[in-house]
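User: My collaborator sent over this chain with a note saying "see what the structure looks like." That's all I know about it. Can you take a look?
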Amino acid sequence: MMASLMWGVVHAQDMTFTQFYFNRAMINPAYVGQRGPLTVSSIHKQQWTRLPDRTFNDMHLSAFNAEISCPTYNLAMGVNLQYTEEGTGIFSQIYGAYTISWTIKGKYSTRTGIRALRNKRYLFSFGGQVGVGQKRLDWSRLTFSDQYDPYLGLTSAYSGVITSGVTDASTMEPDISFGFLWRSELPSKRSYFSTGAALFHVNKPQETFLYTTNQVPQRLSLHFFWHQRLKKKLHSKDPMYLNIGVISDQHMSLQGFFPPLAGSLVSFTGLVFPDMAFDLGIRLNPLDGLDVNSIILVYNQRINSPFFLSLGLEMNTGEFTFNQSGLTFDIGLTYTFEDLFLCKNSKREWCFDQFAKEFIQFGPKNNMQNFVP
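Assistant: Without extra context I'll predict from the sequence alone. Here is the result:
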């Protein structure tokens, strides 16, 4: 599955990974704690491995995420740490955030206009996030034109570009984000849909770096997922599910929501089994005629009951082609502490499966369906 989406903008760049399964808070804070017990995830990404004059480590991203719930009060919290490095000057970004979410459970009325949803159950979750980040640049690894002589080559170890007014580390105000999630049962057994929205950098925090003071533009994230159990005649004794989803991200201008500075749209489909899942997606540019920018492949595997592995691969298809950029790939690992909750007397059937045990608890505990958004 796709993760929350990334593109470069002038003043800010949010990190992203192809595995949406294992770091869902990066697309919507309302997802924090939905798995119930303490869950920790780690993801590492290598991006554009064939750029000219680069080494293997020139552009990589890493993230660590931990979340835990209190089913008694329908509350959950989580922490997220992200770090990235890129370029010869090792331009790096580090970001940390704390998230809290609250869930309301309900049941559609028997008089609901949509007959298929009558007497079905739903959830509404709200999540808020506060974070802070810093950027750094290693000036000692960079050289500038005033350090070179046309005949003698490099003649000075110092450049006039680097003055006392230039800093190698940024400062940023607290960064506020929030999101909501709606999830509903469908008539078919163990099938459901999820939809939600999140607004990141709500307060447009000030960020100082180099000579400038900038505001971080807001990012609007929208998503919709459909998780449908297939008919028994299509598979063996083990259940199989079809996933269909769309994830949209837009970086807004500082003056308002529209027109956006940049955007990305991912459309995907996949199959989910008890112990594995496969997804195929395409990344589009909604601001440029929906041109296909890349193709994404994701494989997820349950190694044992609490331990999961995810592998993602992305190949560019547009003007910035595979031959120029190479592959982008990432690996994710997740571990669930099955009986460790935020408060005492908590049951394993939390959130989606607490009010309907087959809504998410499909078979062996912590199977792959528990990780589908």
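A starting point for your reply to your collaborator: The longest strand covers residues 91-107.
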